[in-house]
C-alpha cells in the first residue's frame, strides 16, 4: 500500500431543504388554512480517527466530498428528511487544517475521536410557521440555508514514543529490526528508507513503547535536497529522539561531520525540536578496531559538544540494543510520573510541543509555497529583486524616442 501523509480535499455540507407552501384541502372543510411543512437540515461532514488506518491514500485520488442535501418540506405539515451525515475515516494522528486560512480545525490523536469539519445548512420554514390571527393564509416560506464548504489539508503524523534520526545507511532500519518485531527493508548495499516504519518494543511482558524510523536526511535537506525534510514532522510528537551515527561509513567519511550535518538540518527545520530529549547512539561499533573506537567516539562527542547520554552499539549483532531499550522504557516511565506530579513540568512540555508544531508547519508551508511557485513559473521574491536590479541597471536605448517631461 502506498504511504501518503499529506492530502488536500474539498468538503461540502448538505444544503437545507426548502420550506413548503401548501393549504389544507379536504372535502367538507373550507378555508382549511396553511399546512406547509419545514425542510430538512443538510447533512454535516465528520472526521473520525480510525486505528486500523495508517495512510491517507484513500483521499489521494478522491478529493471532493459532499454530504446529502435535506429534503424539501411537504404538505399536511410534513417535515423534510434530514440529510445523512458523511463520515470520513482518517488515521490516528491526523491534523485537519483549513487550507485558505491555515487555521487548525482539530487534531485527531485518539482512536474514535470525532470532529465536525463542515456543518449542514439549516432547514427552510414552511408557510405554517407564518400564520397568525391577522395572517390566516400566509404565502411566505424560506429557502434552506446552504451548507458550509471548505478546502482542507490533512496532515498525518505517526504517533510514536521514540524517533530515529540520522543520515541514510546509519543503521536505523537495522536498529528497529533488532529491538522490535518490525521488518523494514535492509540489505548489504546502500539505500535509503522511503517511508516511515513503526515498531513496538516489548521490554517486559506488560511494558512496551513505539519506535519510529523515518527516511534519512542528507545535507541540504532543509532546502529540499533528497527526500527533503517532509518526514521530519513525524518526529514532532515523539518523546525522545535517538540520533544514530555510523562509525564506519562506506565512503570513509568522518562520523563527526555526518553527525554535525544532522544537527544543522534539525536546527534549520525546527530549533525547538532540538530541545527535545535526544540521545546519541553510535552504531556499527563491531566494524571498528578496539584501539580506534575510543578515539572515534571522542571525536563525535567533542564536535557536537555533547553532554547527554551516549551509547555504543552494533544493531546488526544486537550488541547494546537491549540496554538502550530498557533505558528508554525507564525514561518514558519516569517522564510520565513527573508529568502527573509536576504541573509546571507538564506546562513546559506542552509549550515545547506547541512551538515544535508551529515551527514545523511554518517550514513545510514555506516549502509548499516554493514548490507552487516553481510549478506555476512565478519567480520568488529574491529572484524578482535580482531581475529588478538588472532592469534598472540597463543603459537607455539611444535609438529609442526621447521623452521630455515638462512641468506646467
Kindly describe this structure.
The chain is an alpha/beta fold and 408 residues long. The protein folds into 2 domains: 1-156, Spo0b-associated Gtp-binding Protein, Chain: A, CATH 2.70.210; 162-362, Rossmann fold (3-Layer(aba) Sandwich), CATH 3.40.50.300. It has helices spanning 172-179, 255-269, 290-304, 321-341, 343-376, 381-393, and strands spanning 6-12, 45-50, 64-66, 86-91, 94-98, 104-108, 114-118, 149-156, 162-165, 197-204, 207-213, 240-246, 278-283, 310-312. It is elongated, with a radius of gyration of 31 Å. The N and C termini lie far apart (75 Å).
In brief:
The chain is an alpha/beta fold and 408 residues long. It has helices spanning 172-179, 255-269, 290-304, 321-341, 343-376, 381-393; strands at 6-12, 45-50, 64-66, 86-91, 94-98, 104-108, 114-118, 149-156, 162-165, 197-204, 207-213, 240-246, 278-283, 310-312. It contains six helices and 14 strands.
CATH level 3 topology of the largest domain: Rossmann fold
Count the helices. How many? 6
End-to-end distance? 75 Å
Given the C-alpha coordinates, what overall shape results?
Answer: elongated
What does the average pLDDT come to?
Answer: 82
In CATH's first tier, which class of the largest domain applies?
Alpha Beta
Query: Helix proportion of residues, in percent?
Result: 25-40%
Uncertain spans: 389-406
Do you know the CATH architecture of the largest domain? 3-Layer(aba) Sandwich
Strand content: 15-25%
Q: CATH H-level name of the largest domain... which superfamily?
A: P-loop containing nucleotide triphosphate hydrolases
Radius of gyration: 31 Å
Amino acid at each position: 500500500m502506498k504511504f501518503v501523509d499529506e492530502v488536500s480535499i474539498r468538503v461540502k455540507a448538505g444544503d437545507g431543504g426548502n420550506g413548503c407552501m401548501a393549504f389544507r384541502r379536504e372535502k367538507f372543510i373550507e378555508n382549511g388554512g396553511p399546512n406547509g411543512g419545514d425542510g430538512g437540515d443538510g447533512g454535516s461532514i465528520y472526521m473520525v480517527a480510525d486505528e486500523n488506518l495508517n495512510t491517507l491514500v484513500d483521499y489521494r485520488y478522491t478529493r471532493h466530498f459532499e454530504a446529502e442535501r435535506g429534503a424539501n418540506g411537504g404538505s399536511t405539515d410534513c417535515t423534510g428528511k434530514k440529510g445523512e451525515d458523511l463520515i470520513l475515516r482518517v488515521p490516528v494522528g491526523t491534523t485537519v487544517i483549513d487550507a485558505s486560512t491555515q487555521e487548525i480545525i482539530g487534531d485527531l490523536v485518539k482512536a474514535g475521536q470525532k470532529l465536525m469539519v463542515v456543518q449542514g445548512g439549516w432547514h427552510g420554514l414552511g408557510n405554517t410557521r407564518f400564520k397568525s390571527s391577522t395572517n390566516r393564509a400566509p404565502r411566505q416560506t424560506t429557502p434552506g440555508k446552504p451548507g458550509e464548504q471548505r478546502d482542507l489539508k490533512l496532515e498525518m503524523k505517526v504517533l510514536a514514543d521514540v524517533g530515529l534520526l540520522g543520515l541514510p545507511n546509519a543503521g536505523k532500519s537495522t536498529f528497529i529490526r533488532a529491538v522490535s518485531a518490525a521488518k523494514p527493508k535492509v540489505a548489504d548495499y546502500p539505500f535509503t528508507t522511503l517511508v516511515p516504519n513503526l515498531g513496538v518494543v516489548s521490554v517486559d511482558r506488560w511494558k512496551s513503547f513505539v519506535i519510529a524510523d523515518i527516511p534519512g536526511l542528507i545535507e541540504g535537506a532543509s532546502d529540499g535536497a533528497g527526500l527533503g525534510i517532509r518526514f521530519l514532522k513525524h518526529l514532532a510528537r515523539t518523546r525522545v529522539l535517538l540520533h544514530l551515527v555510523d562509525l564506519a561509513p562506506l565512503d570513509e567519511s568522518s562520523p563527526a561531520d555526518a553527525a554535525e550535518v544532522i544537527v544543522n538540518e534539525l536546527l534549520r527545520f525546527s530549533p525547538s525540536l532540538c530541545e527535545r530529549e535526544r540521545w546519541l547512539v553510535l552504531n556499527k561499533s563491531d566494524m571498528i578496531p578496539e584501539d580506534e573506537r575510543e578515539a572515534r567516539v571522542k571525536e563525535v562527542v567533542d564536535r557536537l559538544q555533547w553532554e547527554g547520554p551516549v551509547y555504543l552499539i552494533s544493531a546488526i549483532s544486537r550488541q547494546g540494543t537491549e540496554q538502550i531499550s530498557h533505558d528508554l522504557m525507564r525514561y518514558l516511565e519516569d517522564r510520565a510520573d513527573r508529568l502527573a506530579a509536576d504541573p509546571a513540568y507538564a506546562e513546559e512540555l506542552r509549550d515545547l510541543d506547541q512551538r515544535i508544531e508551529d515551527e514545523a508547519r511554518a517550514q513545510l508551508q514555506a516549502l509548499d509555497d516554493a514548490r507552487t511557485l516553481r510549478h506555476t513559473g512565478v519567480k520568488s521574491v529574491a529572484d524578482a529583486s535580482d531581475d529588478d536590479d538588472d532592469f534598472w541597471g540597463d543603459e537607455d536605448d539611444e535609438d529609442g524616442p526621447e521623452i521630455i517631461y515638462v512641468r506646467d
